[in-house]
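Long-time lurker. I teach an intro course on protein structure, and each term I like to show students one example going from raw sequence to a predicted 3D structure in token notation. This year I'd like something fresh instead of my usual example. Would anyone be willing to generate the tokens for the chain below so I can use it in lecture? Attribution to the forum is fine with me.
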Amino acid sequence: MTALARGLNILKAFTLGDASLGNQELAERTGLTKPTVSRLTYTLTRLGYLSCSPQTGRYELGTSSLALGYWAMAGSFIRQVAKPLMEQVSNELNLCCALGYRDEADAVYLEHTRGSGALIMSVQSGSRTPLATTAMGRALIAVMERHERETLLAAEKARYGTQWPRIRQGVQDGLKDYETLGFTLSLGDWEKEINAVGVPLELNDGNPPMALTLGGGAYALDRRQLVERIGPRLVELAGQIRRGLKAQ
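-- Reply from a regular --
Happy to contribute to a lecture. Here you go:
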């Protein structure tokens, strides 16, 4: 806990107008010793919370820190617009609907709704699901920059080991589905009894995309239904949310 608190103090040391800070400045602002600051900045840089200039050795807030701030500010606003629309779709189709964003190799649920007859999925706001095997995760992968996607897949190969050929095929199928259908599918790839579709929610505000998913019991929701009815309705929902955000 002490290390966590010290790491957070390093991040809080950055204020408006700071282009970058060195270890000495961070030590002065936090009251920590310079060796302690050096260890913390190294770890925070490895985790993406800081970025270090190779030319100057000075630090800036990294993408992980910026993402935390973005989701903290934008989360409640986006949920305010999205939740009523998600509830409408869940009740209309009796399916679970979720809104989420990427954190490393996971998708994190920001909001979750379900119809009265929907399968009760073991997820809630804050739940994490893997990118590679879920419809939401595959939607997020589909809109990544190519180099970012390749870096992720290389890490996932090491993570999944002997399961990787099957999982990679699912990711590749998701990319093809997104290109041809406008949404991705997961047919029992995450949990065998759940089928789902996913679509990216790109807000075009310079921040990372989010994603939406609709899913339910595989026994009642086959690929044909997902492709012909559920996927197009999810694409429509994404458009409704984007329009709602613009109208605010």
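Some talking points for your students: The first helix runs from residue 2 to 12. The mean pLDDT is 88.
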